[in-house]
Design goal:
By secondary structure, the protein is of the alpha+beta class. About 40% of the residues lie in helices and about 20% in strands. The chain is built from 3 helices and 4 strands. The protein has a 4-stranded mixed sheet with strand order 2-1-3-4, with helices on one face. A hairpin with a 4-residue loop joins β3 and β4.
Length: about 80
């Protein structure tokens, strides 16, 4: 199964947790990056990457299929539409 999405999240965020569970429940292949657990240059690089998709740097930020679709916040209907669930 190939990776369809990257979830940029905070480990303490309830909306991020809901997005992660939703993706898992629907067997979506995704990378999960807890931004608050990163340090140093790695954190800076990831934050710069997220800013390209979501200038407000809010979470969760879901990048679908390499940037084909960006979903900020947990919006189940948008995720279902983007991933044809």
């Amino acid at each position: 199964m190939s990776i369809e999405c990257t979830l940029y999240a905070l480990s303490t965020c309830i909306h991020c947790r809901r997005m992660k569970v939703f993706l898992e429940d629907h067997n979506v292949a995704f990378d999960n990056i807890f931004v608050d657990k990163l340090r140093g240059d790695e954190r800076k690089e990831i934050l710069d990457k997220i800013r390209n998709y979501n200038p407000k740097l809010s979470f969760p930020t879901l990048v679908v299929k390499g940037g084909e679709c960006i979903i900020v916040g947990f919006h189940k209907d948008k995720v279902e539409e983007a991933l044809n669930l």
